[in-house]
Amino acid sequence: MGGSALLVRDLSVGYGPVRALRHVSLEVPEQAVVTVLGANGAGKSTLLRAISRTLSFHGGAVTGGTIGLGGRPLDRLPPDRVVAAGVCQVPEGRRVFARMTVADNLRAGALGAPGGREARARALRRVHDLFPVLAERAQQRAGLLSGGEQQMLAVGRALMAAPKVLLLDEPSLGLAPLVADRIAATVREINEQGTSVLLVEQNAALALRLASHAYVLEVGEVTLSGPADELAASDEVRRRYLGVVDEDAAADASQARTTHPTLTRWEA
Ligand SMILES: Nc1ncnc2c1ncn2[C@@H]1O[C@H](COP(=O)(O)OP(=O)(O)OP(=O)(O)O)[C@@H](O)[C@H]1O
Ligand SMILES: [Mg+2]
């Protein structure tokens, strides 16, 4: 069996000539929630695609580094074997099968998963407990669900494979704050049930509340990492990702303007 710690070492990724990740190292310890923060284009989705081995569908390739789960390399596996090994990704933008029913979407999530009918029934019970609406709407087409419900379905579909590690790509994107909070509460519950989570988010406030560890990705490189509460308290993260205006710095700046009249010399 081995453990379920996910270890990324020195990972570099390119899309043709575009280098999207450079020497990224990161760890998701067993049963942890770890978050990766970063602006648009920082490489967050690329990181998840590299782990789930779906980069080639997007024209990308790993150019260096290693990825392992519980000491087992994932690097050479096809995507379905990564799922079987215990790593499932919820892609950016949900991407449920809109014309299929909710029940069929969930069934699709169990394809390639280890275990037989009993394991599938157990996984479905878990998903219905977490998201009762998916049981109520089982026979409805997925495309008719609200955005929040589609995100629940996307998460539920990934859980059908009973992963050890769940990769979540911006689950709160485009959702109203209350709906995003519900998703966040569910992520916490999923984690408490024993699944570790690698959460990619632009909503830093939400992500830092959920995670024990956080990494900041900037233009393909990890520029900051540490315990989530320490990052949440750092000026850099507060200013750039939490939108907190540093009042002391603002006061210093206005004082500087009044006490240094030489700054007006350009007006002459
Ligand atoms: N399929 C692709 N082909 C070529 N370049 C790509 C492709 N996907 C992403 N990139 C480039 O790789 C870099 C990282 O993109 P990525 O989508 O991983 O960022 P992201 O952090 O997920 O951004 P967002 O917050 O907008 O989702 C960007 O420069 C982007 O333009
Ligand atoms: Mg992305």
Automatic annotation (TrEMBL):
Keyword Transport: yes
Keywords linked to the UniProt accession: Amino-acid transport, ATP-binding, Nucleotide-binding, Transport
Residue ranges annotated for the ABC transporter domain, each copy included: 6-244
Pfam families: ABC_tran
PANTHER family in the record: HIGH-AFFINITY BRANCHED-CHAIN AMINO ACID TRANSPORT ATP-BINDING PROTEIN LIVF
InterPro entries hit by this protein: AAA+_ATPase, ABC_transporter-like_ATP-bd, ABC_transporter-like_CS, BCAA_Transport_ATP-bd_LivF, P-loop_NTPase
Stored CDD domains: ABC_TM1139_LivF_branched (cd03224)
GO BP: any one term: L-amino acid transport
Keyword ATP-binding: yes
Homology family: Belongs to the ABC transporter superfamily.
Coiled-coil annotated spans: none
Name recorded for this polypeptide: ABC transporter ATP-binding protein
A single GO molecular function term of this UniProt record: ATP hydrolysis activity
